Amino acid sequence: MIPVFSTLDPEMLLTTDQLAEYLQISVSSLNKARMEPGRGPRFIKVGNSVRYRVGDVRAYLDENSRQSVRVAMVTALSDDDLPDPEEIEAWLRGEE
């Protein structure tokens, strides 16, 4: 069991099992995330073992937090690419 995450030293290293438990995802999901750059928190190889620095996990979670689908969609676009508000509403309703 991991102590309260916010109290951990940013330099502390977590195992894949510990991080999976904290994030409430499978170890397999973390293993797959390591295969694609930018998908999942940064990790460290220590011999044959994988470790995750608490500070890197916090940074990853902060970078990937979203307020809403709408905010995530709009902030990913440049000003020239922004759709009309009606188009956004239609998209959110699942209309083409």
Short description, anyone?
Residues 13-64 form the Helix-turn-helix domain. The protein has helices spanning 16-23, 27-33, 54-63, 69-75, 85-92, and strands at residues 13-15, 44-46, 49-53.
Structure description:
Pfam families: HTH_17. By secondary structure, the protein is of the alpha+beta class. It has one domain. The chain is 42% helix and 11% strand. The protein has five helices and three strands; from the N terminus they run βααββααα. The protein has helices at 16-23, 27-33, 54-63, 69-75, 85-92, and strands spanning 13-15, 44-46, 49-53. The protein has a three-stranded antiparallel beta sheet with strand order 1-3-2. Strand 2 (44-46) and strand 3 (49-53) form a beta hairpin. The radius of gyration is 18 Å and the shape is elongated.
Keywords:
three-stranded antiparallel sheet; 96 residues; HTH_17; alpha+beta; 3 strands; 42% helix
Question: Would you list the SSEs in sequence order as H and E?
Answer: EHHEEHHH
Count of DSSP strands: 3
Strand order of the largest sheet: 1-3-2
% residues in beta strands = 5-15%
Protein name: Helix-turn-helix protein
Domain Helix-turn-helix: 13-64
Pfam families: HTH_17
Topology, element by element:
Layout: E1 13-15, H1 16-23, H2 27-33, E2 44-46, E3 49-53, H3 54-63, H4 69-75, H5 85-92
Antiparallel strand pairs: 1-3, 2-3
Helix pairs in contact: 1-2
